Amino acid sequence: MTDYSEEEQRIISYLRESAARGEQYFRAKNIANAIGLSSKQVGVRLPHLAEKTDDIDIEKWGRARSTTWKVTLS
Description:
Blueprint: H1 6-20, E1 25-27, H2 28-35, H3 39-52, E2 56-63, E3 67-73
Antiparallel strand pairs: 1-3, 2-3
């Protein structure tokens, strides 16, 4: 994960570990609370990570009050 920023590495690690435990749906604010970033920092990076990562699939799933992301291991 050398071509990822430190924040991106933290997000990917959190998503990978959570998906391995069976979690699939995430909101940026919940990820941010878990890893110590702001929800804006996480929300801005998720679309870019969806393009960059090969080992996890990040899909924009739904939008109510905030965007929900579906994450699965590839």
